[in-house]
């Protein structure tokens, strides 16, 4: 996309230089590897006045910026994988297993922390919830799809 | 958002998705998204705003949800 914003973003680092060492350390310490699948396909037309950004290209750039920090996190790109209807999307797979973690849209701004948080959680061998929460969840016998609408600002 | 991901990792019955409202305005409109985070379960809007883990789990597991 030929636009001022797209050209500017290309040169903008995904992470601040001062936060990279700590993030590398956290990612290198992941107890199980995490795979990120970037799902690309037809994008919805954003609201009038939305930033003039190539969301798919920006999502690929962010995910590759994350995987460049540690061998514990890898990524691949898929065109319109089964079961994904919003694009771009990032599927977070702990040890390559699909446990239902998705990010629909471009994880920039404050929402970059959501993607990083998902990766750090997915890299733990056990969930970091309280024993009370885990006990209650163990009794769950119906399927719940939680969608959390977010904005990057 | 992180709590929803933690629940998905903890239970095979739970999946969790963040949806960037600005990139999917039609869906955000359907879910009447005016404030974020807006929590939707099985396609039904539940509440707006971040809450602590016990409250989140309480609300998500309420019999009326899902």
Label the CATH architecture of chain B: 3-Layer(aba) Sandwich
Report the portion of residues of chain B in β strands: 15-25%
The value of Rg of chain B in angstroms is 12 Å
Q: What is the H level of CATH, i.e. the homologous superfamily of chain B? A: Glutaredoxin
Quaternary structure of the protein: heterodimer
Strand content of chain A: 15-25%
Tell me the major beta sheet of chain A: 4 strands, mixed
Number of domains of chain B: 1
Order of helices and strands of chain B: HEHEEH
Task: Count helical runs of chain B.
Answer: 3
What does this structure look like?
The complex is a heterodimer of chains A (153) and B (66). In chain A, strand 1, helix 3 and strand 2 form a beta-alpha-beta unit. By secondary structure, chain A is of the alpha+beta class. Chain A has one domain: Glutaredoxin, CATH 3.40.30. Chain A contains five helices and five strands. The two termini of chain A are 23 Å apart. Chain A has a four-stranded mixed sheet, covered by helices on one side. Chain A is globular. Chain B has a single domain, classed as Glutaredoxin (3-Layer(aba) Sandwich), CATH 3.40.30. Chain B contains three helices and three strands. Chain B is α+β, with helices and mostly antiparallel strands. Classes of the chains: A alpha+beta (153), B alpha+beta (66). The interface between A and B is large, with 48 and 44 residues. Strand 5 of chain A pairs antiparallel with strand 2 of chain B.
Concise structural overview:
The complex is a heterodimer of chains A (153) and B (66). Helices cover 31% and strands 20% of the residues of chain A. By secondary structure, chain A is α+β, with helices and mostly antiparallel strands.
Question: How are the elements arranged and paired?
Answer:
The complex is a heterodimer of chains A (153) and B (66).
Chain A: H1 4-10, H2 20-28, E1 34-40, H3 55-67, E2 73-79, E3 89-94, E4 101-104, H4 112-122, H5 131-138, E5 144-150
Parallel strand pairs in A: 1-2
Antiparallel strand pairs in A: 1-3, 3-4
Chain B: H1 2-10, E1 14-20, H2 25-30, E2 38-41, E3 44-48, H3 53-61
Antiparallel strand pairs in B: 2-3
